[in-house]
Amino acid sequence: MKKLEFALCLSTFLFFVDRSAAQSAQWTATSAPAQATIAGGPWTLSQGGSATSGGAFDGPVPYCTPGNSSGGAALVNPSSTVNTFNPYYFPFVVGSGQNVKGYFDYRPKNINEAVVAATSTNAGQSWTFQEMVEQLTTECPNSDANTSNSGGNDDGAGHPSIISFGGTTWLYTLDRRSPHVDSDGLIVHNILPRGANALNPLPLNSPFMQPPTSNIIAGWNFNNLTGTQLTPAPSTGSGAAHSLGMTNGYTYTMAPPNVGSVDGSNVTKTTLSSDPSGTAAHNIGPNNNEAWRIVGAATTSAPGNGWNLAAPPCTQGAEFDVDTTGYHYIIFQYDWYTTNQGVRDLQALYTTDGSTWTPVGPIQVSGGGSAFNNQITINFHALGITGVENNAKFGVRLVSVFDPDFIGTPAYSIPAGGNVCSAGATGTYTAASLANNNQPVVYNNNSGNWRFDEVNVLGTANNTNPITSDPIVNTTGLVNPDGFLAVVPNTYPIQVLYISKTLNSDYVPPTSYPICPASIPNGNFNDDVEVVRIATTTNFINFTDITPFNTPAFSNTSSPNTPIQMVNGLSDPSTTSYSGIRWVSGNGTLIKLSNGNWGLFFGGGNCLDGDSDAFHAIMYAESNGSDLTNWTVINGINNPIASIATVSNVTDPQSGQQVTVPSSAPVIPMESWFGGRVYAPQAVVTSPGTVSLIFAGYNTGFQLGGSSRDLSSYRNIGQVNLSVANVTLP
Amino acid sequence: MAKRTLTAAFLLLGTVFALTIPVRGDVIVTLPSSYDSPNGYDFVSTFPPSGSTTIGTFTFSIPNGVSVTGITISGTFGNPDSGTTALSDYYLGFSGNETAVEVAGCDNILDDCYSAQNGPTVWSYSLTSSNLSTLASAIASGSLDFTYTWDNNTQFALPGDLQFVYAGAPTLDIQVTPEPAAVLLCFGGLAGIAALRRFRRV
Q1: Is ipTM > 0.95 here?
Q2: What domains can you pick out in chain B, each with its CATH number?
């Protein structure tokens, strides 16, 4: 009998031990959500007045001083002035306990956008302004909504996030300008914080402001050209272009012998460049238009493809020569396309004398093949390279170089004191398309090519621009990044979860997803495909995407879903269900849990919103052990951590059922200041059982369009305390 | 007579107790964080680094009649400027042997000190009796140097890379106890007072 009792006792114990190990975190709010405050800093919404009167132009304390029609300079509040913390959003908070530092996207609608750093000594309830940098404009608003000012006044650098590694700090921002947003890499800044200069050495003004009166000195969009083009003429201005290294005597195959190539560079239609003047097609335009293809002609006598492993680095590609006489603040921009088998790495070179070529900027890495890296920018003035100004012999070469990421023989190396073009450089060219293990593979020596579009040399005829030391350097390897979701601590190579957003692409191949109906609050549509992907980096600029292929859950019978690269379980970009998570937003929080899982706070949304900004709810998921590619949502749309205002009795597009969302009360009771949008949760661990959750929200009135829109309470930073059961926090 | 014996026994026991269970007091010293460089980091070096750098000196005064029974030093890897730091080791020492006792080390790029995203990371170290012996003369003189060295970061850094050390202001907690002679003197005094009171009553 005693043995039986012992066995029962043991099995019961083991049962509970097992359940305990498998249990996920359970969150409970221990305070009411409250709007945070900020001491000091730029103008805030509450200084503009109420929902029905005042504003940035003519409120009690306008955006500019003296303001109104007199304009003036942007207000800077003293630290003794404490305001409600708006309009700021996309917080990125670092630290633990009560003393934390935050990076915020300051974005008064239609007026400006900047990155702001602030500190808090009470885990995010109140903040003290430290520094603002990278502001887009110094213009004053000319009305409360500033709608008649120049367009895009708040499309600057947004969604700040930070990687801290070994004493180095890297700031990443989203380039929100059209057509850069969600196609260019994130902008990378290496910062050296010092006390209140938390964003040292970044300047107050963004390089986006420069040059203020930019002109295209010469530009190539290739749209009026056809067939073979060895020296394509510019579409704007004066300049010369020619291919490099396509006529050669290299050996392409040994058996049968295949030797030699002649230049056959030509113009061909290629989709998804930034060229705005092409023909819209398949919902992916307006960009299905002409690009310049650098390739061999593959004739009978010279059958080579042009690109060859035997070519010394920096000898194959294209050259653009533009006389900059009379111009300053020179900027070179270009769209670069690689086919799957095209060479993976590009280096830009410049000359000031027509004969000596010097590398400028980082090695550009293809995003994976059959895709453009759009509007790669070289801001020569920002880099301190003024010799290219007012220079009749200025030119840029875009050429292939050995792949630093290649693991194998010949190993990559640069001779001491040399550069990627040096004769002593060793390595090999690799293909844009990676192997199944996400490693580069050696270029195949017989196919693949590069294409260019929207190649522009810009400058300004006046010489009044302020000098900046703030070059625009973009990440490579992140596919259509919209910002980081989280940086994975204690990893090397450093891993990040990031938001990949492909604009206007949901109902075209290869995805062909069911489209969302018009959104409930405002009738908006959205066709963006947005997924969470994983990438690694060792140098904070060049990333390698390592996301596995997964199949979104929704599938209609006639067209099963094609697997795409996305982490599994967090979202379903094909769902139309009001209970599903179609979109995920950046600036979430990853926490290592005592149960062995990763906990992830994140913002998400669905077809109810008609907006891929993914602001319907703050949700919570856990990984499957340490596997960051497989997730289970614990607090989803219907039982979220926080939600916008409840949507009642609507017909779910997928099930046809009447639903109310959320169907269960959120962990955090809804308040009006985040009733319109809620996202970007930053969970600061304050004890082994508690976090302070800092997040962003818009009031319900903001979601109303047109003149009904309430501009008095949006982009609010809020805070709430949560406690957790079943796990302990680090 | 019995009362006198009892009093004597209590005094004896008290003396033994005082000698075996020290009466502890702490001297807490914080090293000023003025070593922060104008560029935001504490120290920077081009990889590969070499040598050691003394960050600052703890100065303190050990009261007469007490002895040092323990020292605990605590601080952070990283500080409000940066949550992480270069691979580096921290030491207590003195002129002629600045790296006498290693008190903290950020030794691996996967450790919190180097790659956690929510630093600074707290560290703490209690000196062993051997450590105390090594530092005895410096402790007696009321001065301990705080020194750092860079690790040879072959895990990540490349020749020419900059290595940034960020550290929070460390705190030295010195535990002291009265010396036996002082205790005997104390209890002798107490015994004297007791005897005097008894003599007066008689």
Answers
A1: no
A2: 2-201 (2.60.120)
